[in-house]
Amino acid sequence: MPRPLIIAPSILSADFSKLGAEVTAVDTAGADWIHLDVMDGHFVPNITFGPPVISAIRSSSKKTFDCHLMIAPADCYLDAFAKAGAEIITVHAEAGPHLDRSLQAIRALGCRAGVSLNPGTHESAIEHVLDRLDLILLMTVNPGFGGQAFIPAQLEKIRRVRSMIGDRPIDLEVDGGVTPETAALVAEAGANVLVAGSAVFKGGNKESYAANIKAIRTAAEKARAPKSAA
Ligand code: DX5
Ligand code: ZN
Known about the structure:
By secondary structure, the protein is an alpha/beta fold. The protein is built from 8 helices and 8 strands; from the N terminus they run E-H-E-H-E-H-E-H-E-E-H-E-H-E-H-H.
């Protein structure tokens, strides 16, 4: 059975002056998960928000809070993100020397454990932790900023990781430069969770968000549909 298709808007592209309302708006516009990009100005060259902000917006949506930690070190903050309401916590394989330990710690907190790979990192980095994973997040831009162009060379990595996963119950998430056009490519390659920031929040109102999410979902669904023999 293929994993369900999930569209996860990244609030990095939301209007931060009314973040709670923006989270509610993408929720009602059809988001499956809410993607939270946490950046520390050290692991990536940008700073966003941390546990207090996540805690403050937790009541704005009942959808899964998918927390992407672009921070190093990460281990000492996992507990704070779990307490703030993160349900999925993803750490970068490049962020610390003890990935196996980080993944165990995330599950011990009662959260789903994810690992992310930068575009330049080979998928062999996660070969020996597959059974500790609930999610693999492949970056299709270099992390740090929204609105960057999709890196097509990552499509091959999505295919390889899809095949590494086999029949394990692991979601394969793609993050960066996802638009209706690239959504079709990543879905065809095997991704089932699509993060999109600028392509969802463009337009700035909930009618646009609904249309934007629908366009991404429709393109991905079409690419995932079994090809007819005709
Ligand atoms: C990049 C973040 C992404 C980003 C995606 O470091 O992890 O989630 O917000 O933004 P878009 O969809 O605009 O590329
Ligand atoms: Zn992200």
